[in-house]
UniProtKB/TrEMBL annotation:
Location of the protein in the cell: Cell membrane
UniProt signal peptide: none
Pfam family, one: MFS_1
Residue ranges constituting the Major facilitator superfamily (MFS) profile domain according to the UniProt record: 1-377
GO molecular function, a single term: transmembrane transporter activity
Main location as per UniProt: membrane
TM helices/strands, residue ranges: 6-27, 48-68, 74-93, 114-133, 139-157, 184-207, 219-240, 252-270, 276-300, 321-347, 353-372
Any one GO cellular component localisation term in the record: plasma membrane
Keyword Kinase: no
Keywords for this protein: Cell membrane, Membrane, Transmembrane, Transmembrane helix
UniProt superkingdom: Bacteria
Protein name according to UniProt: Major facilitator superfamily transporter
Length: 390
């Protein structure tokens, strides 16, 4: 609802310099991605519900501060609060869901992703409507939403905490245990490519829209997000069922990564309007966004379930926190590399190299995941999907 428009508000009405805008957004990203391990550790030690409630409350405060903040220090505090809030509740939510779902984890994560993607689709649309009044109205509305969520979670969410360890351990001991989990660590590294590719709906695809429709790309970017959101919201459960029935839980991860890799092939074939015309280039962009949504929907439930399986049902939230931190660093590095490649490829008149490079990332990740499964069965088998399709 709010975050897609923060940069414009900082640079526009507040008049912050470009470096200050980057600093605010960077602090927000680091306070979430860099602190996931902290949130996961606290969730395993204090219980999942307290961290979910605390995260919602902190995000309420962060959005509330954005209503009144008019200076760089205040904006930095507000952005850090909203980011760290996500670090608090995200690992706890996933661990809570995994514990509560039992043998139906894959279906539970698929259902979770339906609502998550619905929020991604509808939130920015609601924020855009509220921006007609003022950014501060949008911030106040976002704070109100999280205030309601805080109260609802506090009153309605049953308490649920991790199984106590056989022997008490320190935080550092827990972190050493996670890092020493070789299968889990290799899985996290292999899955970085999946996140780098999925994130291109926010980076490379909007930049491509600007190339195809310079000065008038807003409608095309909106179409990209609508296509992506509709596939995720409308097809997630059916996609999960179909992949599970056809390939099984573990192989579905590899196939899903191959779909993500294939998502950039249309753009490699039609990298601009000069080859087959603008209409063909726009169609390639929309097909790419659809394939990205399909691949992401295929991967997510099995990915989340595999993290639980590799944790051995111990320190689940800590594993989720560490996992998110690893892929967060990977996304940062991948985005820097992708942005640099986009600039260099366009300057050289070889725009298709960007899309071929992204395809290669997907193929390497899929191959790494396949080798993990083949060599000694490093990935523990996932729980079966037993629920009927709606």
């Amino acid at each position: 609802m709010l975050m897609p428009y923060l940069a414009g508000y900082l640079a526009g009405p507040l008049g912050l310099a470009a470096w200050a805008v980057g600093l605010v957004l960077g602090v927000r990203n680091f306070s979430q991605q860099g602190m996931f391990i902290v949130g996961g550790t606290l969730a395993d030690r204090l219980g999942y519900k307290p961290l979910i409630v605390a995260g919602c409350l902190l995000r309420t405060a962060g959005f509330g501060l954005l209503v009144v903040a008019d200076s760089l220090p205040a904006m930095l505090i507000a952005s850090a609060a909203t980011g760290f809030a996500g670090a608090l509740f995200n690992p706890a939510v996933r661990a809570y869901l995994a514990a509560d779902a039992g043998d139906r984890r894959v279906e539970a994560f698929a259902t979770f992703n339906v609502f998550y993607q619905a929020g991604i689709l509808l939130g920015p649309l609601a924020g855009m409507a509220l921006l007609a009044f003022d950014f501060r109205v949008t911030a106040a509305a976002a704070a109100g939403v999280f205030a309601v969520l805080t109260v609802a979670q506090l009153l309605a969410l049953p308490r649920h905490r991790a199984e106590p360890a056989a022997q008490p351990s320190s935080v550092l001991d827990d972190w050493r245990s996670v890092v020493a989990n070789r299968g889990f660590l290799l899985f996290a590294l292999a899955m970085i490519g999946s996140y780098v590719l999925s994130f291109q709906v926010y980076l490379a695809l909007p930049l491509q829209a600007a190339v195809l429709r310079p000065g008038n790309e807003t409608a095309l970017v909106a179409a990209v997000f609508v296509v992506s959101g509709l596939i995720a919201v409308g097809g997630q459960l059916r996609i999960t069922r179909w992949f599970s029935d056809r390939w099984g839980p573990r192989r579905s991860l590899v196939v899903g990564l191959l779909v993500l890799a294939a998502a950039f092939v249309p753009l490699a074939v039609v990298p601009d309007g000069g080859r087959f015309g603008t209409a063909a280039a726009v169609a390639a962009l929309l097909v790419s966004s659809a394939l990205l949504a399909l691949g992401s929907a295929a991967v997510f439930p099995f990915e989340m379930d595999t993290v639980v399986a590799l944790s051995g049902d111990r320190l689940v939230a800590t594993h989720y926190g560490f996992y998110n931190t690893v892929v967060g660093v990977g996304i940062l590095a991948g985005n820097v590399a992708t942005g640099s490649l986009i600039g260099a490829a366009r300057a050289a008149g070889l725009a298709e190299l960007v899309w071929l490079g992204l395809t290669a990332i997907g193929l390497v990740s899929a191959a790494a995941l396949y080798l993990l499964m083949r060599d000694g069965g490093k990935l523990a088998p996932s729980t079966p999907l037993t629920a009927s399709e709606p």
